[in-house]
Amino acid sequence: MPTTLEAIATANPPLRRSQAYAASFMQRVDSQPEGIRRRIPQLYARSGIDYRYSCVEDYVREPADWTFFPPNWSLRPEPTTAARNRKYREAAVPLAEQVARAVLRQAGLAPEAVTHVVAVSCTGFFAPGLDVELVRRLGMRPDTRRVIVGFMGCYAAFNALRLAHGFCRSDPAARVLVVCVELCTLHFQASQTLESAVINALFSDGAAAAVLAARPDAGGRLTYAGDHCLLDGDSLDDMTWDVGDNGFLMGLSSRVPDVLARQLPAFVEALLGRHGLTPGDVDFWAIHPGGRAIVERAQEVLGLSDEAVHDSLEVLRLHGNMSSPTIFFVLKRFLDRHEAARARGEAGYRTGLAVAFGPGLTLEGCLWRRGAG
């Protein structure tokens, strides 16, 4: 029985900043080394990002009105992990509820018809968790089965999709709600290294939700056709995410684009080969825009056209890297086109491949195919 992709919805916190504004804010943080402060405008201008979103209102206020950071341009003493986590819970729950209601509405699915919830996040923790809050706030049945995918980073949505597919294969009545929410800007630190300045220039806040369903007849919808994962054991320290006393701390090596580029062709070949396909059979590519360099290196080693990576770069430009929800922002653009084509009586896309990268270094990918009917 096919697992169909019924709908995708996306959302961001209301605070939207231009990348130029974000650079000017970070330049004013006087606890950073002067050499780092001088490089911030160039780093931000070369990021491929025009806008980002945040749940932290201080980013558009002056210190006298700050409520998250201390009221000084050193940002010290830094907010504790506990304070950041309180802000996470305050902002993540309503954002997750908003995007979940939107995707259920798009899918024409009543909350009480949801059989499984998969909640995804790596930027905060609490219990009872986001899964419980969603069941309670949306009015789902108390026997709705729940899973949390936590602390896996940018590729976590692929693990959620794999779980959803498994639920659909085991239950012919399955209707699975997947919700990803990340508030990365809660964990920005005053940059003491070029690496941390690059991290501050890339990440953003966002949420996405998807509904997947087990259906005897796919009816031309996009279906989940398979997946593949790969752990590069030589790159464990190239991307990290640790809990510190003053927020979660990210490590991001400049080697990442090259490591991923080295692994990506064989990874794609393995995923497609299981289905008797080649890259020439793929008519849409959803590449997680972890950064402009990552998308450009993927384009280079896979021999993709500018058109093939346009949607990934547009999501990066308009939203930044939102960690786990980001791939759904990219996939939504393809799903919307596919459904519009079906509404016109056309077939839509035939085959698509999505891929993301994260700590490990880990590559995760899945294959989408137009279902029969």
Blueprint of the fold:
Layout lengths: L2 E9 L3 E4 H9 L6 H12 L5 E4 L26 H27 L8 E6 L8 H9 L6 E6 L5 H15 L4 E9 L10 H9 L2 E10 L7 E10 L7 E6 L2 E6 L3 H18 L10 E4 L4 H11 L3 H14 L6 H18 L7 E8 L3 E9 L3
Parallel strand pairs: 4-5, 4-6, 11-12
Antiparallel strand pairs: 1-7, 2-3, 6-7, 8-13, 9-10, 12-13
Helix pairs in contact: 1-2, 2-6, 3-4, 7-8, 8-9
Please count the helical segments: 10
- Number-wise, the strands total 13
Termini Cα gap: 13 Å
What is the CATH-assigned architecture of the domain at 222-370? 3-Layer(aba) Sandwich
Mass-distribution shape: globular
* Strand line-up of the largest beta sheet: 1-7-6-4-5
Give the full name of the CATH homologous superfamily of the domain at 222-370: Thiolase/Chalcone synthase
Q: What is the CATH class designation of the domain at 222-370?
A: Alpha Beta
Strand % is 15-25%
Catalogue the unreliable spans: none
Topology-level CATH name of the domain at 222-370: Peroxisomal Thiolase, Chain A, domain 1
Mean pLDDT, all residues: 97
Overall radius of gyration: 20 Å
What is the SS-derived class?
Answer: alpha/beta
Q: Tell me about the biggest sheet?
A: 5 strands, mixed
- Which range best describes the helical content: under 10%, 10-25%, 25-40%, 40-55%, 55-70% or over 70%? 25-40%
Succession of helices and strands: EEHHEHEHEHEHEEEEHEHHHEE
